[in-house]
UniProtKB/TrEMBL annotation:
Alphabetic keyword roster: Metal-binding
SUPFAM superfamilies: HMA, heavy metal-associated domain
CDD domains assigned to the protein according to its UniProt record, in alphabetical order: HMA
A GO molecular function held by the record: metal ion binding
Keyword Heme carried by entry: no
Pfam families hit by this protein: HMA
Domain HMA: 2-70
Tagged with keyword Kinase: no
Organism: Kribbella albertanoniae
PROSITE patterns for this protein: HMA_1, HMA_2
Protein name: Copper chaperone
Amino acid sequence: MTTTTYSVSGMTCGHCTSAVTTELTKLDGVTEVKIDLNAGGTSAVHVTSAAALEETAVRAAVDEAGYELAAS
């Protein structure tokens, strides 16, 4: 298992975190998503998965939810 923290901008509420969580948990191997919401700023998104995830897949999932993965 590995946990990676991503920075996501644009989230402001529980609905936002739910949308991001839903999209990220669709990725193969993801077992848990925890979000430290910083409303209106950049939030820390902790993703636990069986193996390291491709950043392009994470970025696509966050985009699908309507938010932006900050540059790493």
